[in-house]
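Intended use. Records like the one below are meant for learning the mapping from a protein sequence to its folded structure. Do not use them to infer anything beyond what is encoded.
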Amino acid sequence: MSLDTIPVVDLGPLLTGDAASQHEVARQFGEALETCGFASIVNHGVDASLIKRMYAEAECFFAGPLADKLAWTPPEQTKGRGYLPVGIESVAATLAGETPPDLCEALVFASLQRERAGQGLPNIWPTEPPRLGETVNAWFDAMYALCQRLMRLSAVALQLPDDYFAASYREPSLTLRFVNYPDQPDAPCAGQLRYGAHHDYGGLTILRPDQAPGGLQVCSLDGQWRDVGAPADAFVINVGDLMARWTNDRWRSTLHRVVNPPRTLTGSTRRLSLVAFTGPSCDTEVACLPSCCSSEQPPRYTPVAAGAYIRAKLDQSMQLSTPAADSLPAHATNRSTRSC
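Structure written out for the chain above:
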């Protein structure tokens, strides 16, 4: 697998094509997720002006002073919402035990559908930049719509009725994670990466990367790490553990990481990624799909509850040596005054 063999799938026929064209898109999408677990999608229907605006708002937030950003850190010190500073997590710990913390910071929003209905734990909403909340809500709606299209496409690709996943994804587990990988003026510790080697935990991950150095790599079947590139207007889609379990490993949850930029580079190497982690609603039982098992290929995994599986992975990835919750500023009373 190399840059040239990460498939690019054109979703245009889903909106305008006939049934035969739509089934061909589903075939290409399914083949990509079977062979390498990754695909780039173009003509995806997400408005280009919204993408530009979301990037700008996220960049403005991360450009602020650390003290301002820490005001929006959740008191429970989890990955589920709010601002996560550098050093608070290590995703490679889900596979390799204790590892150096990842060299990234993030702003996380989860389950906006439930929040809008007054259910569950509310998200933490920074007040600066002023239009951040408005843009995040629009971005959530766009990612929700794209997720619905991808799950209909997935059902067809897996030889299931196109509405097979509709009930499980009516109120999906959809988490937005805006990830900033800062410049690295000092050399990382041994084995420390921007984001350590890991498998995603949920259904399909939707990633909008940028073109900065020090980016995404995937581990091929022969154990070699390969760079992943995508067309400038594309999203990158990859398979998470729950989808792999659902498909009996027919679709691959591929090991991947975000590497450090070369130390020889001059100028800024900051990188920003817009990520949407999607999955079924928390109470969904993920058991082998009927089209993915047979007497010759019995189910490999016992059924799991989607929410419990994700929570266990999130807990495992959090660093234990983070600041105590009472040492952080109270986000309810601390407000940033900077502007962009």
